[in-house]
Amino acid sequence: MADGLVLGPDGLHRPAWASVHEDLRHYYDTEWGLPVRDEHGVFERLALEGFQSGLSWATILRRREGFRRAFAGFEIEVVADFGPEDVERLLHDEGIIRHRGKIEATISNARATIALRDLDGLGPRGELGPGADLADLVWSHRPERTPMPATAQDVPTTSAESIALAKELKRHGFRFVGPTTMFALMEALGVVDTHLLGSHRRGSSQVWTQDGSPA
């Protein structure tokens, strides 16, 4: 291991967390940190990050298809219509994390996502005009520069932007959206790039350059 990276059998450098199992390597190589800008995609990842709180990402990743089946493919309107009987059904679904608070938060967050669409403007000063949605709100918290971590210890767990995003989402009724969870969401969506320097994925989002400036 050099500079916090692990050299894989394919000759590519990855962080330790992405070098343990093939499913994590595949997720790191093909999805994590690539830009997701559509409302549906952002909602799914918001839900999964909420379920991940207090757990490992591997635990969530290996149940991802179970979550998709349980939550109707994360179709926002369908999840928003879930009622008490659906909560009880999900509490008995072994394909997901059976946590009542997180299940109820996902349903509540679907309703909050729909409610955002009807506002005249999003953001503290309404800077995102009519027609803005959850994805626009999340991406509006993109920083001016992204971190430049050389080791895992250099990767932040929160930022001024993730704190602001958490505050804004809570203001609109979202739950399980603390600053740490929101920073993890921003990493997953490509809003920030925390690939370690020297990783073969650094700068791959085309949102950020290798040196941390906007692409």
TrEMBL record:
SUPFAM superfamilies: DNA-glycosylase. InterPro entries: Adenine_glyco, DNA-3mA_glycosylase, DNA_glycosylase. It comes from the Bacteria. This is DNA-3-methyladenine glycosylase I. The lineage of its organism: Bacteria, Bacillati, Actinomycetota, Actinomycetes, Micrococcales.
